UniProtKB/TrEMBL annotation:
It comes from the Archaea. InterPro entries: HotDog_dom_sf, MC_hydratase, MC_hydratase_acr, MCH/BMMD. Gene3D superfamilies: Hotdog Thioesterase. Residues 170-202 are annotated as: Disordered. This is Acyl dehydratase. It holds the Pfam family MC_hydratase. GO terms for molecular function: lyase activity.
Amino acid sequence: MTDDTDPTDWTDPETFRAALDRAETREKGNYFEAFAEGDRIEHEPGIRLSRAGNERWMAQTLNHDPAFWRTDAAAERGYDEPPIHPDYLLAATMGPSVEDLSEKGGYFLGRTDVRYRTDAVYPGTELRVDSTVIETKASGSRPEYGIVTWETTGRDAETGDALVSYRRTNMIPRRDPDESVETDGGQTAGEQPDTDADPRLPDELLTPDGECFEDFRTALDDAEGRDAAVAYRHERGRTIDDALLAGLPLATLNTAKQHHDAAAMADSPSGESVVYGDVTRSIALAHARSDERTFRELGYDDERFHDFVTAGDTIYGFTRVLGASETPTIDVPSGVDATDTAGEVRFQHVAFNQNEEPVYSGTRTALIEMRD
Ligand SMILES: C/C(=C\C(=O)O)C(=O)SCCNC(=O)CCNC(=O)[C@H](O)C(C)(C)COP(=O)(O)OP(=O)(O)OC[C@H]1O[C@@H](n2cnc3c(N)ncnc32)[C@H](O)[C@@H]1OP(=O)(O)O
């Protein structure tokens, strides 16, 4: 039987609303119950890392380092041509994983162990992404969610070689939220947070005199033995507009409704669309990179997203220098030779908004050029 002779006008507004009420929704994404420790998931979507996509990401996030834009500057940095930017590679790896892992909603809690596996990735590379479930646990604070950690790897689709990998943790909604679910120790109402931590800042916050490895090391040496830290803010800000809000996550195939479905988000705790965490952190890191001579990015750890960022907010950056060493303390990607060229600096970066509230923090390990 066909509907060709159906006299009902399905587009009549009242009829249509009734149809919507009765129709089942073909859902996207997975609930918490779908994930079991050890599961390996090969993500179906793939992405081609194009020069246009790269330049769009870098331009909008203020990552304007000429080595990623101009052939002569790239050659000086030891690249064959302007490569794919590390932030874009990371976001383009996370994007294709979202449909399977986090499209159902929930909070992006954090990421750690971000490591680049190869020196340079060039435009034209096609990415294939896979993830393994590392841990699943109940949320003590929000029984309607579970907490899942995955290890995700972005690979060159042609060779299968790993290009970048990381561990990410999200809160994922349960299919059947049940108040009686066994939780494992979230803070309950009335319980006070641990206040043992000393909130006092050092007397002095020092700023390095320049942008090279030696400047960071000298500033750290100056702080040594005094009540001081090397910490400073960056001047630039970037206000969240349409180019950033839905445009960049969708350009990396990130299907999380948080960023592009304003109607769905009107009913959520933020009340509106929220900015993709990778956009927020890329802007703050760009502010920091504009005040240093970055040679290579090595990795990121302990990344946390402290609060929602929404349209109209402005993202600023704050940096604390944690350490400097001539010999790298974490693995340098194959193909990088930085001897006598660059030293390793460890930073803590904080992205904050126009109300001076932190929205992102994380540590970053990078090779910073030595003075010529
Ligand atoms: C969707 C997307 C990408 C994608 O995915 O597609 C995005 O880009 S979206 C944009 C970026 N994002 C945000 O906009 C979130 C902003 N942020 C907040 O709105 C608040 O920060 C909060 C509501 C998330 C938390 O607020 P909060 O409740 O005060 O925070 P906490 O109590 O610290 O954490 C609660 C529970 O998460 C456990 N937990 C925390 N961090 C980790 C971690 N790193 N590893 C393992 N477990 C962790 C914690 O252990 C506690 O567990 P319990 O529930 O068992 O107590």
